[in-house]
Write the structure tokens for this entry.
Amino acid sequence: MSEPGGSPHPYIPNTASDRALILERLELASAGALFADLPEAYRDPHIELPPALTEPDLLRLVRQQAGKNRDGGDRPSFLGAGAYRRSVPSIVPYLVTRSEFMTAYTPYQPEISQGTLQTAFEYQSVVCELTGLDVSNTGLYDGASATAEACLLAARVTGRSAVALLEPVHPGILEVVRTYAYGANVRVDAVRDASEVSAEHACLVVQQPDFLGTIVDVERVAEAAHAAGALCVVNADPFALGMLRAPGDAGADVVTGEGRDLAGGLQFGGPSLGLFAARNEYLRQFPGRIVGRTRELHGPRDGGGHEQAPRTGYVLTLQAREQFIRRERATSNVSTAQALIALAFTIAVQALGPRGLREAAELCYQRAHEAARRIEALPAFEVPSSGPWFQEFLVRGPMRAPELHRRLAERGIAAGLDVSQRDEPEARDALLFCVTEATPPEHVDALIDALREIGDTL
Amino acid sequence: MDIRDGLRYTHEHEWIRLEADEGVIGISDYAQEELGDVVYVALPNLGTRLVAGQRFGEIESVKTVSELFAPATGEVTAVNEALEEHPELVNESPFDDGWLVTIVLTDPTELESLLDAAAYRAELPAAD
Amino acid sequence: MNGGASEDFGARLSFDRSEPGRRAVDVPRWDGELAAFPDARLLREGVRLPELSQPGLVRYYTALSQRNYGVDSGTYPLGSCTMKYNPKVNEAIAALPGFADAHPLAPAEDVQGTLEVLHGLQRALAAITGMAAVSLAPAAGAQGELAGILMVKRALEQRGELARRRRVLVPDSAHGTNPATAAMAGFEVTQIPSQTDGSMDDDVLARELDDTVAALMVTVPNTLGLWEHGIEDIARQAHEAGALMYGDGANLNAVLGRVRFGDLGFDVVHLNLHKSFSTPHGGGGPGAGPVCCTAELAPYLPAPVVEAREGAFVLARPERSIGQMQQFHGSVGVLLRAYAYIRALGLEGLRAVSENAVLNANYLWRLVREHYDLPYGGPVLHEVVFSGSRQRREHSVRTYDIAKRLIDYGFHPPTVYFPLIVDEALMIEPTETESRESVEALAAALVAIAEEAEAHPELLHEAPVTAPLGRLDETAAARRPVLRWQPAEA
């Protein structure tokens, strides 16, 4: 621990003599006097915390803890269901961990925050291109809460107090929408068919691809929503949009999505990144921060003192929507967003570029379909997915789904999510498998071997 | 600062001017100066019925937002569409080109309860 | 670095630097059997994205990073934001593959390491706040607030009082997130004015606290850097009136290890781990906003919470949970860092945090107080709120100008124009990770700027002159918004 007289901790610079000097200048006898306003009866309580650890001891502890996780790494895993392993370009973690990006706050002072602001503008541009919509904010917490915010936007602009979500939708998305809707006193209906949307609904939400992996014809959903006077909200996987039609081009009014997977590791599901883009007419109803392009008020002076042309810069803009100005009438209470994840997402998408993103999405599609083909070729297994799908497919084996899951786990393989309790007929007795462009082919081989063995032992 | 005679003012700094049976509504020079650079004005649609003393729109500057209150009751007959492209008109010409809406007054005697220029001037904080 | 000061770097986005045919990464070729693609109407034609080589892309983003200022660059005394140093070992920990690669839907037995850490963090935050139960689910402070107020809503619903208790009381010194959150949860907001010592006006509070109040939302210490006097009595009064006490823990850094929300009578409180617990803010997130509550409110906590059952850790859903806040379990990567921070400091370390944070803020107050107005006096806790009203009145210099001039002195400016109840506010929070001499340097700059305001106000009006860019036209940005890249007109 710290020497007497030294600083109390490596993170805290003031030494005992620094503190003594400051106290003397403050004409205080002890540091305790600084807290004199705190109620005496409750001051300095006993708090049960484990003792402080030095850096090497801390690292030893957490390495042991990390070692208790068996998921990921060399262990074959076919879990997707809203969180997908992607091939993240190595320049992404390298660039985003630059301390000027990482250790900055929200860019309140644009003159010394152009790094954050200009990258946010890049992000907004990328999201608009991917989604086919006019305006993007700088990102929200995650895809599900962004979808909830989209529902609240729809309720505000239509004056309606119910929203509809088209099944099959990820249960986490449905649940987060319900949480936010409870606050806003909005009713949430989970519907089986787009035709169930009515004039009571502010919007119809559809997931692309849907929870069971199927590629949705957004245009038909949007037509149904619009016919009822509702907005069409699409929660889309931005990686799949490398290949799939931009939802905005198919009639979507708001597009949300989850950007975490392309930005970096799964990290047990967070921090995440909620994409949020919409048509221009909803600009004043946007939640969250927006960055705009502008110029200097005055250009820099040259050697002779003459003012040169003003330079281009970026600022937080349209802030009158936000909580720190509008308070209880704000469009949302969002303050902190996910700037660093948005930066990582932007660099990943731009590193892939227009062709790379398409190729990666198509590779994902092909690898997943080949895996499904090999599974279907096994005598006791079928792939009951209906319609075109992207990277996730249903697998039904010769036994109940939990049992198949368990037997694969015994063989060191994390199976797809058990969806056998769902109402959709194709999900009966099925596991939802996911194969992406980042799934090692040898893991697929191991899966096929394991399934064959399980089938053979019947 | 300009406080124009012949108009009626609210405590919330809107003005109204009678032109035939219509009332033209705007915000005062004092109000635009307090707001700073106006960047956006949200106005009601044609045909909307305004009610005296009630909120009918919003005006935004870079760092603040302010509600607009109707000086009188009546139906909106015109909206200043130039403000959509040029919100700065509210700053540059609050009493003329920067008007907001016109209404057909339901009850012109309502205006009598509003402030005249002298009374409005007396309400404003003394200039530095 | 960027082609000299005269280059208009910001005018050229990655899209403008694109050259057809360049690429930064290669995607493996698919040479297996080709599955048929879906119907063309489901597919896109192409997507407009920049084409840059790997070195080109790395140089562009490196140049952008150099146009930013972070805590690692220098003092960042942004009041109410607690911009403390972000320990680097925490980055190494969050990046450990066992943690970083864990899938959120993996069975509990496969992620015991992560669950153990999250459970440890829940316990530590419960101990630090003196509350019975914790959920780590909310993604940031404002989402933690929403979770907490929704818990209040659900608890009142259970009691059959929701129809009557429609109001949330919020002091006028509060962050905008507080009233915005109450409104998002469907409540009406009643603002409580501050009195001259910065605390809530007792008389107004006593008058407003009736059986229509759902909760009182209070930031402790408040945004003026002052203790809310008699908060424990206010909590008692609120409870007598049947209302719940919501605590905004944004300023916890001031009292870490010194006093606990639970002991003071709060029912539910949120914390900002990217403030008090050192996780990097990333230019505006990610953060994490755990919500902590009494045993009575624990059944309403957002899902999931981590529980220890028979020697193993599991994710659980509280009995009457308000539901999930995110699709999965929260900002786990951020939570790992906060856990590592608490383990590195221990109780004595956390007490040293609050002691030095408060010491530094008061030292700054002492060194600067003659030069700026101080409407709510001192001494203070973690931050001090000066007013630039004297400079505005006497020298036509605004707080905005003072902030911009600080950039020329090499500092990040403080929070300005907040709290709203202070005219021309300059809200300064040095934090404990600044040294005595860096506090002195910041104070010297503030004093020098006050003197410049008298003698050479033009230096302030023209500031900054040393930054990558001068002042930007925020009005033009808002009047005619340009919010995305568009190809140049052909």
Q: What stands out?
A: The mean pLDDT of chain B is 93.
